């Protein structure tokens, strides 16, 4: 008998960082919840399958899997396969050495948080904010500095005031195009100033741009300030354009920041699926017009859905919502005009009517927003009849409170 | 003019953990280096394309991408899609709730290190060890406790001595089947004892089993002790059987350990590619015999290559190497019999002859091994003629020192 037989089993200890990871709450992330098949779910930024090039992806897969030696089934290198990096680099206007292929946009953000935010350091974020980012920030046990977001995205002037007052974030998170949830787009001069502040005060901008290609109105704003700064991680993804299920995105990395991100990535999952990379590279390069044709169809579809849904809401609940027609993306962010309406009760009543959406109160990263008076409706994957029916039910849910 | 104009740009600070990540050295990871097309590379555990079911994967892709609504291109949930989890669970003999789909085996290890090893804590590892694990351990800035590996894998008795002497690792890493690099397999009684020690002393076993299905001789040893303990992460992957390029693996997780791993994963890349998961699930379930048929072909091929290469080495360099014929996997681990041979010079001379292999000196995690007198040859993706030519050149490289 060995002398450890007399010990009581020792409990496992948990790393402090892991112990502090919060339970999911509120925001119904698609990766955490089951779908509710009996309801009309307006929850997530889900692209419509009708505008994803499924057949072309299948055909591209057959081609890459018939190549001699089948390189698509073998290891590749951490930054991504050359053909895909080169296509992305050409679209971004940067050298391909600055492109790192990721497993989607959120993966790029998580690498950025882990690579650039010291444990317990400060991270400045949109307010209101894409709520999953706050969960991501827990990877560094980061403290949160909320920065107001207005009709034109991040309030960069306010950020400048915070910095001059002594705040020293390690990173700043914002969605510059079709802000999630509030739908504004950051103007060019604010982008230039944001980058200047980052360089001046030594923080890294995490510019999260998943909806950028889905502009269906107005003029695009250049991403050049993000792609030419030594202090910006420009985060993008094929999620909203070719399909979330690919799990394929990219970072545009300044040369100075690339080694730390690569060092982390090689220690986590090494590289993104060679197969998925090879298929997408084949898809995009074998028919150079395919990506833009796909986007044109998607933009037309989402513009129409956005307009139909906004009009139907006004018809079914006249005057109840103030809605800024979005210029792109997959969301409406209406404000309840009547302060007497209880927004939480509305969400509950809507759920009883078979409508699930994200209540605005899930989105603040700090005080001072009107998010509690708002609703986030995702319309991307619902056809027009479904959106009209959704508006009918939302109107009914509203009348449970307002009568009439 | 704002008052920050007078500041000098503030340098970006780097998280201490990231700053401490070591530069790659020695071990030539496929994800970090370019191939050398003029050489015979015996470097990595690469499966032969001829025994990967490329055509069947292409056909499965076409089928999943023609499903209505194309769920393979949409978001899925963090643990993986049900069809794939269920197939894996049936093969492992566990409930599907205990399966988490990963982006390959190393990804599972990295999740385990991040979830269970406090920063700066101790991790016990094989000695010699799969060197990339030491890089992975840097994700927790872990201190390393080497545990000897003998002809039958990890020396569990020695581990017990270390624990009784007061060592308290947070985790232990070992490759139980066809140890990498030293090729032994851990017997059942040692597995049982290892698990008992983990439960007694409160550490998590990271049982890394990528070669398990590639047994081509001898009797398999049950993985049941790993799949029935509350203290084991059983790490596996389709990398060596269906192709590294899929980036698809899995963890068998005890219920007690699952929430922490899931909490981390949702904050990193959310979930593995739905497309790859759906394709592999379709591949495996549409033809229930396919996986075993594929494995039978792979085992026959690797047994034959192993035997041919060992015999050719003996023929070209008679008596120079002591080679234990492996019972599975993709490596030979010969020992240089003559202590007068300089192993580093041999590797350099072999490189000049157009042969690249991993020198044994890359593999120790601490003192006391004979790894410096050994060589790791990967034979998986080289046909017999190439292996015979490799043996000729290795013989020539050896004679540069020994004469004759």
From TrEMBL, chains A, B:
Highest taxon above the source species: Bacteria
GO molecular function annotations of the record: pyridoxal phosphate binding; transaminase activity
Domain Aminotransferase class I/classII large: 54-394
Keyword Ribonucleoprotein carried by entry: no
InterPro entries: Aminotransferase_I/II_large, Class-I_PLP-dep_aminotransf, PyrdxlP-dep_Trfase, PyrdxlP-dep_Trfase_major, PyrdxlP-dep_Trfase_small
Cofactor(s) recorded in Swiss-Prot or TrEMBL: pyridoxal 5'-phosphate
One GO BP: alpha-amino acid metabolic process
Gene3D superfamilies in the cross-refs: Aspartate Aminotransferase, domain 1 (3.90.1150.10), Type I PLP-dependent aspartate aminotransferase-like (Major domain) (3.40.640.10)
Keywords tagged on the record: Aminotransferase, Pyridoxal phosphate, Transferase
Name used for this protein in its record: PLP-dependent aminotransferase family protein
